[in-house]
């Protein structure tokens, strides 16, 4: 009976862990540039201080990868919004070093730096933060070049001030951070890729499929109920066995 309860309790714990991943995906269904996180079960050997049989295994929930397919493009008309078409990433500066994101909802902060919605500076092709002239009207080109027209300037006075750093590292060379940003697994900054293209005035939404996420949540809820039913049945069987063996 103890082994039945242990197995069912372990299964229930794995279901709850996977449910938290699905819930996080569903909560970010409207988050720009969010990449769906994958969760799977895998077996691991049971290793303890006391000798154990080599065939004893347990299970854990792991999040080995993210779904990197493109999300829906939404036109916003905002000059500072941008979305990458196809493969590629925007480069941003974080306290932990250079990181990568698909979220192109940019803004200009009080220091006149181009930043993400999280406040991280967006990097230029030379690895430096992008500084926008005060009250300048920004225009992005398809390859990430940044043009600015100053307040009161004539259309012919538009200036090219830099280029966004667009990268395209191998998916298996990226690690997902707790902040939702991706970083190079080897700790090195990825080089700029001239083949990456973007479009201004658009934002890429999350690539999470809400219907699939809801189906996954319902399926997990049913699995959890089944595990709880096994535990209840094991407890009932133990009570019956005790009543048969007990003496009046």
TrEMBL record:
Q: Which residues form the Flagellar hook protein FlgE/F/G-like D1 domain?
A: 83-148
What's an example Gene Ontology biological process for this entry? bacterial-type flagellum-dependent swarming motility
Q: Where in the cell is it found?
A: Bacterial flagellum basal body
| Stretches assigned to the Flagellar basal-body/hook protein C-terminal domain | 200-244
Residue span(s) of domain Flagellar basal body rod protein N-terminal: 5-35
Q: Which SUPFAM superfamilies match?
A: Flagellar hook protein flgE (SSF117143)
Q: What is a single Pfam family found in this protein's UniProt entry?
A: LlgE_F_G_D1
Keyword Isomerase in annotation: no
InterPro entries the UniProt entry points to: Flag_bb_rod_N, Flagellar_basal_body_rod_CS, Flagellar_FlgE/F/G, Flg_bb/hook_C_dom, FlgE/F/G-like, FlgF, LlgE_F_G-like_D1
Give the record's keywords alphabetically. Answer: Bacterial flagellum, Cell projection, Cilium, Flagellum
Task: Spell out the family assignment given in the record's similarity comment.
Answer: Belongs to the flagella basal body rod proteins family.
Q: What is this protein called?
A: Flagellar basal-body rod protein FlgF
Q: What organism is recorded for this protein?
A: Pollutimonas harenae
Q: Which gene encodes it?
A: flgF
């Amino acid at each position: 009976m103890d082994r039945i309860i242990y197995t069912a309790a372990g299964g229930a714990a794995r279901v709850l862990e996977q449910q938290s991943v699905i819930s996080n995906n569903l909560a970010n269904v409207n988050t720009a540039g969010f990449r769906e996180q994958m969760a799977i079960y895998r077996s691991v050997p049971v290793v303890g201080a006391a000798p154990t049989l080599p065939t004893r295994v347990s299970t854990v929930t792991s999040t080995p990868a993210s779904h990197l397919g493109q999300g829906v493009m939404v036109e916003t008309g905002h000059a500072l919004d941008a979305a990458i078409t196809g493969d590629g990433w925007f480069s941003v500066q974080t306290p932990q070093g250079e990181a990568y994101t698909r979220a192109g909802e940019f803004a200009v902060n009080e220091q006149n730096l181009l930043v993400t919605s999280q406040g991280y500076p967006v990097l230029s092709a030379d690895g430096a933060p992008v500084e926008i002239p005060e009250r300048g009207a920004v225009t992005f080109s398809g390859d990430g070049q940044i043009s600015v027209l100053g307040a009161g300037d004539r259309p012919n006075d538009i200036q090219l001030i830099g280029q966004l750093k667009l990268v395209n590292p191998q998916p298996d060379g990226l690690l997902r951070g707790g902040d939702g940003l991706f970083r190079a697994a080897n700790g090195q900054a990825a080089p700029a890729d001239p083949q990456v293209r973007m479009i201004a005035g658009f934002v890429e939404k999350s690539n999470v499929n809400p219907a699939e996420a809801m189906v996954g949540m319902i399926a997990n809820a049913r699995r959890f109920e089944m595990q709880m039913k096994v535990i209840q049945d094991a407890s009932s069987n133990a009570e019956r066995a005790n009543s048969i063996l007990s003496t009046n």
